[in-house]
Amino acid sequence: MRLFGRELECASIDALLKQARGGRSASLVLRGEAGVGKTALLRYAESSAANALWISGVESEADFPYAALHRLLIPLLPGRDRLPTGQRAAVEVACGLADGPPPDLYLVSLAALTLLAEAPRLCLIDDAQWLDRESLRALAFVARRLHAEGVVLLFGLRAEDDDPGLLAGLEARDVGGLGPEAAVALLTDVVDTPVDPALAEHIARATGGNPLALTDLGRELTAEQLRGSTPLPEPAPIGSRLEAHYTARIRGYPPATQTWLLLAAANAGGSAGQVTEAGQLLGTTPADAAAAEADRLVTGSPPLTFRHPLVRSAVYGGAAPAQRRAAHRALATAITGDTDADRRAWHLAAAADGPDETTAAELERRADRAGARGGHTARATFLTRAAELTPDPVRRAERQVRAAEAALTAGAFARALVLLDASGEVALPGPVHGSALLIRSMAEVNAGAPGGQRHAPARCLTAAASFGDDRSLARRAVVQAIDHTIGAEHLSTVTEAEVAAAAIALAGDDLDGLILAGYHAFTVDGYERGVPALRRAIAAVADPALPAETLLRRLVIGVNFCNLIWADDTKKVLLDRAEAAAHRTGALHALDLVHYLGTITGVALGRLNDADRHDTAGQRLRQAIGMTAEQELVWRHPELVAWRAGPGVRESVTAALDVFEMLTLGSLHGWTRFSLAILDNAESRYSAARDTLCGLIELGRPRRYACALPDLVEAALRCGDRRTAKLALADLTLAAGACDSPRATGLLDRSRALLAGSAEAEPHYRRAIEHLTGGLGHGDLARARLLYGEWLRRQRRRRDAREQLGLALEMFEEVRAEAFAERTRRELRALGGDAPMPVRQTDETALTPQEAAVARLARDGGTNAEIAAHLYLSASTVDYHLRKVYRKLGVRSRRQLRTSLHD
């Protein structure tokens, strides 16, 4: 297959295919303007591969969920019986092969990955900008998770189209116009008469080397024009001008030809029989396509194939609105039966020339059907069009709010906000207004809108009032207000007391009612009276009978309540159960949240290796779902960086503080400041630590940052502020006594030891170590040994001090808590002798985070297929990583792995 001037692009494709034959997967996005040759490059790839699947995006099909993915997978679906149960059910519902609950996008994506990975193949996706959003998201996910399957995905994408960023993170290559020599060679090749060399160069420049423009212009020009004796058309058709060029040609055809072409353009994705029947209604037949076929603008009729998408655009865009409506009306009449009911409804909507409640209601029903298949983007589109056709203004606004809700579910947060703005939500009836406010609060927070988190709690409280006597909806709104208040903290426009007042009015005995009661009791009454209410709410969230969806929805509140009362064991149960539920249901955004909370929990407990696992898994997920670098800023963990205390840590953490403050993420801002204070304590910068902590903690009212009281006791005492240290200890005594948690009790004894005299300190240190040993607080125990060792050294008990400091150093080095490890080494050096630096693994022996995750699951008995489902990989990729694990660890089997691999 000859491609003029595309040697570099062809070489890149050849390299990918060669790599695939060696078992490695790859993806590439070919991006360029219309006519630049993306399709030709995909055809070149197809001609070089033995096993290829091809689909092209169709603009009129972009609103039908999973339509493109279904077309791609048709040859593979007979093998779906081999899929894991959840994946099989998801892909069957998505492809309309079975009924069931709306499938999660990422379960569908994983099913596609599994099917494609079963045999090496090339997947070619042309005009990707016109794929339905669900299919494009699924294929982008597949492309990001490919590794060792021998699968290649090539996308052709129009550069001038509005790219929603769904292919972000994939390798892309811009395909530009041909160079002068190649452009002249192509022009000479496509014409039958001699071409004046200077004229050929002029044409090459005028078209920008666009191959389609060169080809069509060369075939259009007369022999006199090519010889230079007659002027050329100016400007030369290219890009949008090329479409105008096609439009002019089409308008020269007989009316019956134009009508037939318009029906074909409007019926993309429909059957040949439907366009033929619609043609009979409008007085045209397949024979009327002859003129366009002679000009090579189309081939085959029916079904009719357009030479290029620009031809289809020219046909449809060049028709008068009344002609387009007539074509859609005829197509709607030609479509019968339930299988194409969605398409019929869409044609009816396109045929409408004004408000039409009957059509709007049908679109609304079709929207619900799309939502049942997991097509939330399509649902939003159907509802938006239904709203446009709705005569009654109130009903129209209600449909716009429902469309916004669907857009929110689809992750299209900006679109949801636009729809809400159009609805005029302030004038909506109470319950609809309340729903709009809840949707807006979630959309603004998720979109990172300026002040979104700050205003979200107030919006939710207003929504609760809008629901009137509907206590169920009002309760949900106030629980959402609590969720947002946890995120906004001190940056919220409403106080915790205001949220608590709304909560107590709706408290009850069900899950949300117990959450409201617990939040009110703790906020208003503090630890002594609030802890029992919090325990009841935590028990309700941790109930094993709670549905997975509800657990994931209430996870942030449950974890937060556990933090308040040092309920570490229950928090671990919640996170483990939520992680399993998110894996099982394919809820990757929820799984990302689990990993985010898991990282924070690992840091809080000083279990930095656990934090690393969650942080790495979260990064992999965010890459897989196509999160941009700007979006990922919110999900970074400066507190983990602070514990590690590497070079430039203060600069990077300070930069994170600025981001969190800009986005009004008060909890992340406060947690990061707390982490900086811990780093200050580790580095003996006690005055700075005390000042930071005093800005977080309201002494005399231990609340959200009671967990920071032990650090304040240490910092204040070490910088000579004994008064503040005593006040902090009094608050810690109250909080720890109410919680009756082993870790809280251990931290209380550790803090009492610091303030105790020489005769009383040691029993407190020993009790602290006893309470903390065997619990989850690895960092707290290590710091207790460090403080005890420091005290012993000052008591001149060198042997005992060395023992405690050695144990502390071992624990700090185990999790690479560098600042505390260095503080411990200084103490050991003060005792005399060396404090050796730890030996780090080299790149040759250290497992990568991905390898470590695979190894842990294999050690625990997971099969390759189970590990693949858990990590959202293919079984081939799992096998690839496992072989590398065996080589690095010097083992040959899973049984040997169990004895050589430790957490």
UniProtKB/TrEMBL annotation:
A GO term, aspect molecular function: DNA binding
Annotated ranges, domain HTH luxR-type: 840-903
A Pfam family that the UniProt record links to this protein: GerE
UniProt keyword annotation of Transcription present: yes
One GO BP: regulation of DNA-templated transcription
PROSITE patterns the UniProt entry points to: HTH_LUXR_2
Top-level lineage group: Bacteria
Protein name: Transcriptional regulator
Organism: Paractinoplanes tereljensis
